[in-house]
Specification:
This protein has about 350 residues and is α/β, with parallel strands linked by helices. It is about 35% helix and about 15% strand.
Length: about 350
């Protein structure tokens, strides 16, 4: 038996894990610093851990009320109706849910280059083909409505990432608004705010009240430190919010993720520490790396280092794991996640030594 033709489908390449690298190098995993996947260096919210411990004896039951409770808390936070909150297995799950909802045969989507690898993957697995718009390095990877519209040709979905992974650049809200207004009314603009808590820029949430062709992606993986649980959500316009019930996998998000998400949402102390730590670290990286870097609105900094694959490999053999951006289409750059203060200092020292 053979699969359908998957030759255009590129597998997702995640940043490497600590255990994997430690085993390969014969090092103690505790001595490694992993700054390759934009995870939270302070760990999960302690309140979330406690909520999981309390709920773990109940995992023989389906997550009905925990799903409802988390949905309602998110709805309250964003001042939308619960139907406008689409809970999904990670933010990646939302990309799939939007693909399921919108993509028809022969549709095309428009994704950023460089950009997050799961946009094209999700679109392709739902039968769409993928066009790209270019963020230009010479322009500091600036993002505007105009640069997207130059590549726009009636695609069914357009993905915008702000703050953008891996460059850190942002698209101002007025530009997103303009983009959503200028594309066809049957083109969905997906605004990926996976790093939304790290920036001062306003969320595209406000556009949902006046536009029907915008959806906002948020996740518990980054700021809330729950990447291992796989929980994210979309905020969508009221007009088609009900579609969730028609395309949803039953009990999309598991019970432990639901209770942890709810607890993390209310843990302001953990959130503040995470955001402040990231702001300090990205300034530190920016000021001290012996390489060109770009301003970042996220919890990571992109740096131009020449042969990124060699630099990342050498840095890793010194115990600091960073992301070689070859798979993003930037083989001359590495992306360094904001760590704790000691981790970030060690990363800078190690990278600078390697660059020398
Ligand atoms: C991390 C990330 C996501 C979502 O990740 P999940 O772990 O699936 O929530 C989405 N978009 C971008 C750009 C990301 O970096």
């Amino acid at each position: 038996m053979e699969t359908r033709d998957l030759s255009a489908h590129v597998p997702y390449r995640a940043g490497r894990g600590v255990e994997e690298v430690a085993r390969e190098l014969g090092l103690d995993p505790d001595g490694l610093v992993k700054l390759s996947s934009n995870e939270n260096p302070y760990g999960p919210s302690p309140a979330a851990v406690e909520a999981i411990e309390d709920a773990v004896g109940q995992i023989h039951t389906y997550p009905k009320s925990s799903h409802t409770d988390l949905t309602e808390a998110i709805a309250e936070k964003w001042e939308v109706t619960p139907a406008q909150v689409w809970l999904t297995p990670g933010g990646d799950g939302l990309l799939d849910y939007l693909s399921r909802t919108f993509i028809r045969d022969n549709d095309r989507v428009l994704a950023p280059d460089p950009g997050f690898a799961y946009y094209p993957m999700s679109a392709r697995s739902h039968g769409a083909s993928v066009d790209q718009y270019r963020l230009s390095k010479s322009d500091g990877f600036a993002q505007s409505a105009e640069m997207v519209l130059e590549a726009y040709d009636g695609q069914r979905m357009v993905y915008v990432t702000t703050p953008h992974n891996p460059t850190g650049s942002e698209m101002p809200l007025e530009e997103i608004d303009r983009l959503a207004g200028e594309v066809d009314e049957n083109t969905l603009v997906v605004v990926d705010e996976a790093y939304g808590e790290f920036t001062d820029q306003a969320s595209a949430r406000s556009l949902l009240d006046k536009r029907e062709n915008v959806a906002v992606l948020r996740t518990f993986s980054k700021t809330y430190g729950l990447a291992g649980l796989r929980v994210g959500y979309g905020l969508v316009p009221e007009a088609w919010a009900e579609a969730y019930d028609q395309i949803n996998t039953p009990f999309a998000v598991n019970k432990l993720a639901c209770v942890a998400g709810l607890a993390a949402l209310e843990d302001e102390q953990h959130l503040e520490r995470t955001v402040e730590g990231a702001r300090w670290a990205r300034e530190y990286l920016h000021d001290n790396l012996a390489a060109e870097t770009w301003d970042s609105g996220g919890n990571f900094v992109l740096a131009e280092v020449g042969d990124a694959s060699t630099v990342a490999e050498t840095t890793q053999s010194e115990g600091v794991i960073i992301r070689d951006c070859g798979s993003f289409g930037l083989p001359e750059c590495v992306r360094v996640t904001c760590g704790t203060e000691p981790q970030t200092r060690r990363a800078v020292e190690t990278i600078n030594e390697v660059l020398e």
